[in-house]
């Protein structure tokens, strides 16, 4: 059967891509056999996970040779992320594993000395001046697209890959903060690849997919076809014929801060799954008589709210299943269903948290955390967030003298899906002390306000089970251990600030940021748009999350974004919706 095919090797979330393609009115068939590849009229290769495992899967499944043949025929191909990287000669991620060698050049690790790695968030893709290749790609100058990667192909002016293949460049990091310019998309003939994820890049990204799916043939396809053939058939790959030269314009760092909408989800007393929101983690209304337990606050339906936030311009959406401390069987169907349905209409990254741990089914069958996470990825999640289990993993890490044993949820999931897919949700609570000597084993700071009894110091105690139990670990110890175990991002809540609308806990956030190099999402306490400006300016945090003010429509997302822009903070502009 001809048509559009998807080259998937089962390593992560391709559901959103498939949903976007279908939403655009196209059918897509999974490649099941090597012979399917040459049947395709159009082929999409969304690489997920590590470079080495992607290449090994291509070889193990017998896809590598038909893929090279497909490319040499100059048939329409779209590679995404690792799907793009695989066309190069190799990657420092797995130096012993060669790439397909269609494009000269190597994939390198970002320098994390002065900036957070992975490069995770929204950034623009700047078309190289003089390139005719951008026509018909659906790319828009100045629009932000969603990137998530630790490795990239550096843009080296005058290099073969820059001259012959590079379509756009992107800069990560500015002057004085380890700025690096890399190739963010390539195009030659009918081969078009992006380092960013169009299926996660809002309407701007869907437009790129649309252009590929609706397009006929690329500009300059004939001449390029000969070059591609030469490249794919030459031993060792690599093109030897020079394309016209161009003058690149200076690139600028356009990496944006992210605004995240968070949905705490649980069943209410009637058994319906609702979005709720607590004050300092208490999600029940005050009962009228003050005696009985009030109802669980119901602020809306998860799928509908997520869609609203996507359309209003949220850069990311997080679902937290807040009652996961109760044993939930692997097929926690309501949350899987929420994800499946959300990914049909929401094209920005989705995180799911709550219950990412080893679980035991009622029949006694054990499912490791990796399997639980895999289930969520297959159903539309891009990242999983680990709460309680991360605290236990960190305790074990210190008990072993500062190392992991490879079995924790953080390690196993990061190994299989990449560290960018593992977020740690931290639920710290202030413990006030009179002097650092009162908490000798913990990292103590001076909070902005004195404690209830005039205490000048505090430490942040980590909690588990939704804040129900405090552990003998401070937040710094936790985040340092989690980063070492392979986590890619920290979602930093504060039990004291949660729902209070008094602003983020800046001292906590600064302290955590100073301890680690992975990105931090500030959470808890946003009460107005200026609180976002404050947290970005004073802590340099990469993302800020809010829940209550969005659910109750007290502060529109649009106001948050426009206030940040006015303050000179780089923010992704809200997309004009596409009719899809
Ligand atoms: O321990 O891995 O099963 O994960 C449980 C997850 O559920 C954790 O991520 C934990 O933070 C979350 N959780 C558990 N109980 C509650 C609760 O509220 N009773 N929610 C809870 C935490 C905190 C935030 C909130 C911000 C912003 N919610 O994410 O959205 O504080 O709120 P605001 O803007 O209204 O101030 P595991």
Could you describe the 3D structure shown?
This protein has 18 helices and 27 strands. It folds into 2 domains: 4-222 and 242-255, Rossmann fold (3-Layer(aba) Sandwich); 257-280 and 294-567, TIM Barrel. Strand 18 (359-360) and strand 19 form a beta hairpin. The strands form 6 sheets. Strands 2-1-3-4-13-12-11-8 form an 8-stranded mixed β-sheet. It starts with a strand and ends in a 14-residue tail after the last helix. It binds ligand 1PR.
The number of domains: 2
Determine the CATH superfamily of the largest domain. Aldolase class I
The second-level CATH architecture of the largest domain is Alpha-Beta Barrel
Q: Identify the CATH class of the largest domain.
A: Alpha Beta
Provide a compact summary of the structure.
With 580 residues, the chain is α/β, with parallel strands linked by helices. The protein is 29% helix and 22% strand. The strands form 6 sheets. The chain has an 8-stranded mixed beta sheet with strand order 2-1-3-4-13-12-11-8. The chain has an 8-stranded parallel beta barrel with strand order 14-16-17-20-21-25-26-27, surrounded by 9 helices. Strands 5-6-10 form a 3-stranded mixed beta sheet, with no helix packed on it.
């Amino acid at each position: 059967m001809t048509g559009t095919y998807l080259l998937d090797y089962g390593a992560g979330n391709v559901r959103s891509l498939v949903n976007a393609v279908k939403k655009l009115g196209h059918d897509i068939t999974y490649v099941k056999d090597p012979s399917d590849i040459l049947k395709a009229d159009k082929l999409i290769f969304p690489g997920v996970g590590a470079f080495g495992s992607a290449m090994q899967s291509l070889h193990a499944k017998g896809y590598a040779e038909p893929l090279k043949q497909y490319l040499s025929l100059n048939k329409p191909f779209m590679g995404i992320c690792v799907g793009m990287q695989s066309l190069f000669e190799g990657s420092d991620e797995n130096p012993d594993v060669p790439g397909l060698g269609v494009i000269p050049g190597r994939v390198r690790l970002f320098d994390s000395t002065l900036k957070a790695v992975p490069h995770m968030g929204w950034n623009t893709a700047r078309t190289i001046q003089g390139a005719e290749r951008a026509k018909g790609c659906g790319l828009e100058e100045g629009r932000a697209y969603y990137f998530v990667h630790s490795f990239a192909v550096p843009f080296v002016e005058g290099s073969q890959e820059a001259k012959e293949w590079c379509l756009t460049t992107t800069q990560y990091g500015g002057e004085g903060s380890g700025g690096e310019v890399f190739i963010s998309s390539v195009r030659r003939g009918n081969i078009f690849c992006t380092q960013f994820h169009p299926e996660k890049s809002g309407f701007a990204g869907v437009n790129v997919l649309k252009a590929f799916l609706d397009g006929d043939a690329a500009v300059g396809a004939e001449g390029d076809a000969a070059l591609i053939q030469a490249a794919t058939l030459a031993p060792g790959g690599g093109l030897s014929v020079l394309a016209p030269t161009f003058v690149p314009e200076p690139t600028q760092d356009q990496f944006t801060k992210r605004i995240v909408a968070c949905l705490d989800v649980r069943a209410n007393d009637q058994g319906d799954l609702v979005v709720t929101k607590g004050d300092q983690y208490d999600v029940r209304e005050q009962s009228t008589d003050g005696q009985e337990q009030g109802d669980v606050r119901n602020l809306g339906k998860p799928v509908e709210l997520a869609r609203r936030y996507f359309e209003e311009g949220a850069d990311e959406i997080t679902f937290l299943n807040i009652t996961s401390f109760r044993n939930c069987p692997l097929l926690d169907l309501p949350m899987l269903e929420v994800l499946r349905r959300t990914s049909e209409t929401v094209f920005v990254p989705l995180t799911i948290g709550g219950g990412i741990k080893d679980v035991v089914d009622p029949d006694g069958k054990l499912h490791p955390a990796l399997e639980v996470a895999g289930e969520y990825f297959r159903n539309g999640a891009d990242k999983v967030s680990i709460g309680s289990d991360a605290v236990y993993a960190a305790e074990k890490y210190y008990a072993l003298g500062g190392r992991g044993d490879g079995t924790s949820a953080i390690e196993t999931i990061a190994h299989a899906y990449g560290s960018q897919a593992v977020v740690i949700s931290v639920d710290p609570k202030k413990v006030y002390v009179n002097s650092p000597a009162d908490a000798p084993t913990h990292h103590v700071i001076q909070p902005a306000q004195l404690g209830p009894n005039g205490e000048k110091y505090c430490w942040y105690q980590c909690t588990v089970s939704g804040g129900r139990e405090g552990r003998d670990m401070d937040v710094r110890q936790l985040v340092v251990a989690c980063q070492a175990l392979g986590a890619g991002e920290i979602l930093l809540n504060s039990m004291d600030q949660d729902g209070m609308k008094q602003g983020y806990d800046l001292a906590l956030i600064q302290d955590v940021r100073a301890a680690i190099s992975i990105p931090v999402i500030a959470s808890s306490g946003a009460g107005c748009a200026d609180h976002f400006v404050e947290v970005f300016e004073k802590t340099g945090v990469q993302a800020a999350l809010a829940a209550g003010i969005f659910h109750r429509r007290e502060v529109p997302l649009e106001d948050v974004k426009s206030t940040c822009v006015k303050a000179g903070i780089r923010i992704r502009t809200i997309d004009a919706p596409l009719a899809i």
